[in-house]
Amino acid sequence: MAEPTAVLALQPIPILKGEINLKQWKRAVRQHATYFGILEHIETNLVLPEDATHIQKVTFTRSRVHAHMLLTSTIAPVEAQLEAAGWDDEDDSPHTLGSLIVKNIHKVSENSVTQLFRQFMNLKLEQGMLLRDFNAKFHRLLNRLAELDLVMPEKAKILMILEAVKTRYPEWHRSPLLDLPFSFNSFCGVHPERTLDRRCQTQNPASGQE
């Protein structure tokens, strides 16, 4: 009687936390990419030949997207580091992202937490910055700090966002909501976040001004 064949399952790619598990992350990514035949998209700047057939183009695009997804689906905790290093999240090149990760990921330290907190505290709605972009950056930094076990109190979040937009929208500081037992999510639901969205929708797209 033949021995049953053992089936080896691919282990999930771990969430990249920094240099602390970079080695394990790279090994898992390489295993997955090799198994699916897309490793070349990560390790080299693969280019589609000009004379490629339709089938080849479809295969190339799917493999490129798959490789990019292998990376982006596991790097949320280090996105702030990568953006600081020049990562453009609209760049869909898996090779560019993979190279950036290997070159720039460092162990999360108290110093990096301090730098991230300082960046959050100094966040302002600068001249020419879209409200939509400010809103996204505010919440991205807030979530990153929470991932590092630095959770902001509810009212502190409200005060931070009001202070950051004070120069352009001083009337928000006169909001009676600050005197109520309000949660940050409820505050965003009725005041800044939706207000940001509405103001963004009414801006002049041609001028880029609010």
Structure characterization notes:
This is Uu.00g136610.m01.CDS01. It comes from Anthostomella pinea. The chain is mainly α. It folds into two domains: 19-104, no CATH class; 110-202, no CATH class. Helices cover 54% and strands 0% of the residues. Helix 3 runs parallel beside helix 5 and helix 9 packs parallel to helix 10 (192-202). The termini are far apart.
How would you sum up this structure in a few lines?
The chain is 54% helix and 0% strand. With 210 residues, it is an all-alpha fold.
> If helices are DSSP runs of H or I spanning 4 or more residues, what is the number of helices?
10
What is the approximate shape? elongated
**H/E order of the elements?**
HHHHHHHHHH
Q: How far is the N terminus from the C terminus?
A: 76 Å
Helix content: 40-55%
